[in-house]
UniProtKB/TrEMBL annotation:
GO terms for molecular function: RNA binding; RNA methyltransferase activity. Keywords: Methyltransferase, Transferase. It comes from Clostridium oryzae. GO terms for biological process: methylation; RNA processing. Its EC number is 2.1.1.-. It is an enzyme of class 2 (transferase). It holds the Pfam family MRM3-like_sub_bind. This is Putative TrmH family tRNA/rRNA methyltransferase. Belongs to the class IV-like SAM-binding methyltransferase superfamily. RNA methyltransferase TrmH family.
Amino acid sequence: MELIQSKDNAVLKSVKKLKQKKYRDECNCFFIEGFRFFQEAEKARVIIDKIFLSNEFINRNSEYAAMLEKEYRVYKVKDSLYRDICNTDKPQGISAVIKKSKTNLTAEKEKLYILADNIQDPGNMGTIIRTAHAVNAAGIIYTKGTVDPYNDKTLRSTMGSVFYVPLIEDNENLDFTCALRRGGYKLVVSSLKADYDFYDATYDNKLILAVGNEGNGISDLVEAMADMLIKIPMPGGAESLNVSIAAALMMYEVLRQRKNRS
């Protein structure tokens, strides 16, 4: 177990850089912290590149730390330095660098995808990922300008679901989404401009559900691609729903219809 005692340690510096999206993209990895989150990573069998343990954690969990050292590359970090790499106010003393999972997705299977179009709030994005995991969605597609699903706040909001749902960042032309549509997928877009009630529609097995920005809604590009514009009924007169709530309602209606057909 390598001991990190200096703030100038190269490994420590590289971990701090993971707070930046640019560096996360370059090294194709991200940082997690907390005992429950780490256990979920192990359960999901993702690639754990490095583990960081504080002195205090090792003193309290010496046998567990020794077990981790047999399986992973583990670093023991001086307590004062350990706090510097974490984002939470009261770190639990265990964190890790995780390799992003490779996605090998095709349009052949009959699946459900969620298209997150310029979602800005990390909590909303994390909740959408968590709900997509719950309904067994094939993946989350997110457009340029959407909050990074691998930033700290988004990751915490996923409650570990980030390890189970493929995340696909589409380009400015939405080439991945277009490829799915060429493969027979229908794009259903939630829009306040729509006249069609979401609950009146029947949804194909090959389906992309799109939800838009918290303030501005769906983008013109995604709306122009839509096979169907729908709206969720709000008889109480509310102006709109929180985007993660809207996404959850849509996903579970699709799940309900699929269960009824099977």
